[in-house]
C-alpha cells in the first residue's frame, strides 16, 4: 500500500466519452473538431491552423530573456539527442549471405502539447527536437486555444525555433482523433507523441488499438518523483524537489525514501513551510495528500523500493550518488546529487522530459530519437550463399511443418543444381 499510486477514477466513463469524440471527429472531421473546441475550450474557431500573423505576435510577446532561454534549452536538447541517432548495419554473416538494417524516419508525426493550468513550451522542445533530428518529413503540432482563440505565445515561438511549420489550435481527445485519422485541416499522423490528461491518454490508447488510427509514444499517468535522501541531504532542497513535481497535477505523487526519521521530520516541516509561498497551493493540497515518506533500514533497502516503484523521476540525494547508480534498474530519469535539481531535466539539461509514469518505467524508456525512426532489415544472398544456407532453412521449415516455406527454397536449390534459373 505504501507504494500505491493515486487511483484513476471514472476510467470507464472517460473511455466511453472519448470513444464518442473520436467517432465524431472521424465521421465529421473539422466540423466535429470545431464543435468540441467550442464546448470544451469555450471558443469558436473559424480557422484551426495558426496563422503567420499569430506567429509574429507570439514572437513579439516574449522578452529577449525568454527567447534566449528557449534557444539555450533547444541547443542542449539537440546536442544530447543528436548523439542518439542509430547507426545502419551491413554485415556478411557468412559467405554469400548479406544482412542489413536500414534506418528510416517515421513519415508523419503528430505532436501534442497540453495547455491546461500552465503552458508547456518545454514539451514542444522535447517532442519537436528529436522529430527534427530524425528528419521526419511531416511534423505537425496540436495545442489547445485559450478563451481568445489563440495558442500560447511561448508554445508557438518554441515550435518555430524547433522547425515546426504547422500548428493547430486543437486540444484534448479531439486533437488526438484529428491527428490519428486526419481532417480537411489536420494531416493524418503515423504516430502521435506527447503528454495529456486522462482524456488525452484514453484517446491515445484507443487510436493505437485501431489499425486505421495511429501508433502512440508510450502509456503514461500523472507526474511523479521519488527522492532517496540520507543525512547529508539539504532539507530545503529535498522539500523543493518534492514540491516541484507535486505542483503539476492533483494526481501527481511525491515520495521521500530515507533511513533517517529525523531527516524525514525536517523535510516534512520544510514542505509545509514552502507550500505556503507557492502559487499552486490548491493543487499541492491534493497531490501532497497522496505523497508519502517511507522509512527504510538502509540505502540498499531504499534502492529496492525505488526499483519496485519504478518512478518517473528518481533523485539520489545521498553522499555518493554515482556509486549507487548501477543498482538503479527501473526509473524514467535519474538525478544525481545536490546540484542536479529535477527541473533542469524538465527544461534544459538535454535529456527528454517525456517519461514513462505509473510504473511503466519497468518496461518503457523515456522519449528519444529512436521513437521517431524505425529499423528496416534487408537480406541478399548470392547463389553460393543460397547453396550454403538454403538447406538449413529447408530443415527448419520441415521441422515446423511448413512445406510451402521449404518449397520456396528447394525450388531454387534444384534450379541451381541443374544449372537453370527458371
General form: globular
CATH class of the largest domain: Alpha Beta
If strands are numbered along the chain, what order do they take across the biggest sheet? 5-4-3-6-7
Q: What is the number of strand segments?
A: 13
CATH architecture of the largest domain: 3-Layer(aba) Sandwich
Output the helix-strand order: HHHHEEEHEHEHEHEEHEHHEHEHEHEHH
Describe this structure in words.
- The protein has 422 residues and is an alpha/beta fold.
- The chain folds into three domains: 11-218, 3-Layer(aba) Sandwich (Rossmann fold); 224-365, Nitrogenase molybdenum iron protein domain (Rossmann fold), CATH 3.40.50; 382-417, Single alpha-helices involved in coiled-coils or other helix-helix interfaces (Up-down Bundle), CATH 1.20.5.
- The protein is 45% helix and 16% strand.
- It contains 16 helices and 13 strands.
- The chain has a five-stranded parallel β-sheet with strand order 5-4-3-6-7, with helices on both faces. It has a five-stranded parallel β-sheet with strand order 10-9-8-11-12, with helices on both faces.
- α1 (11-28) packs across α8 (198-208).
- The termini are far apart.
- The relative contact order is 0.14.
- The model has no long low-confidence stretch (mean pLDDT 95).
